[in-house]
Amino acid sequence: MLVVKDVSKQYGDFTALKQINLEFDKGIYGLLAPNGAGKTTLIKMLVTLISPSKGELLYNGTNIVDLDEDYRDILGYLPQNFGFYKHYSPKQYLLYLAALKGIDKKTALPIIHELLEKVALSDVANKKMRKFSGGMIQRVGIAQALLNDPKILILDEPTAGLDPKERARFRQLLTGLSRDRLIIISTHIVSDIESIANQVIMIKNHEILFKDTAQSICDTLDGFIYETSITNDELETFRKNYILIGEKQERGNVLVRFVHKREMDKDWVPVLPHLEDVFLYEYRDNLMVEV
Ligand SMILES: Nc1ncnc2c1ncn2[C@@H]1O[C@H](COP(=O)(O)OP(=O)(O)OP(=O)(O)O)[C@@H](O)[C@H]1O
């Protein structure tokens, strides 16, 4: 089990993360927060690229820094911007990385063959990556992270720049990979993890806001989300009085979706909360510009 114990991270005077406590077992954990919330900071500590200012990270009770090589042997990591050589084919690239990891060519070849099959890149195994789509490159990234058949797979924003179809494919791939390992995936896109994560971790104000199933997180807004149709003229006032989390033009009117925790109006329709609603509600101050 991987444990984050009372971890804080300072960059000079700036506190990026404060008193983080987390436990990871097998399955998919989605680390969900807007950009700048500290996801990469947490991930870099989990892969020992940076050290916590306070607290410790433990794997089966031992500090991961002390485990050193033993920890890296069970770790697969896909950084936010992973460096690949576009003049290499996936096969050449993976052979090169295998060599760096001390795996000889004879052992590496069947592993690479199997991995490329797993990430559906067998038919382009010998093609230069120059012309690959973002999704194909990310799948090469996953393949390189899986070279040592890691027990822990950590992916930092792996779907950035992917189109919805590639995202869906990526989710399928991760579900298949999660059977016997721990996968931690960071993202600011709710749909990346909503349906596949066993646990969702949300960070707010440098602390853990939620660590729970998507359903339980949704339940925090149960009974507080409504939809109603208003005129375009009413929209401005509505925006001022309620916390809007969605608006859609519909037959000349606006269908608004909003959070309200007091008495409801008879024209409003109560709706079931989605994880996206919680995300937009909790991060409404951070997202003003982005949404
Ligand atoms: N080396 C550093 N020195 C100073 N501040 C940093 C450093 N690295 C990150 N930060 C700050 O810490 C905060 C968290 O950054 P982090 O990269 O962990 O966020 P994130 O949630 O991963 O966002 P993104 O998806 O944009 O990477 C940000 O305000 C960032 O500016």
From TrEMBL:
SMART domains: AAA. It comes from the Bacteria. InterPro entries: AAA+_ATPase, ABC_transporter-like_ATP-bd, ABC_transporter-like_CS, P-loop_NTPase. The keyword Nucleotide-binding applies. The keyword Lipid metabolism does not apply. Transmembrane segments: none annotated. Keywords: ATP-binding, Nucleotide-binding, Transport. Pfam families: ABC_tran. Residues 2-230 form the ABC transporter domain. GO terms for molecular function: ATP binding; ATP hydrolysis activity. Belongs to the ABC transporter superfamily. PANTHER family: ABC TRANSPORTER, ATP-BINDING PROTEIN. This is ATP-binding cassette domain-containing protein. The lineage of its organism: Bacteria, Bacillati, Bacillota, Bacilli, Bacillales.
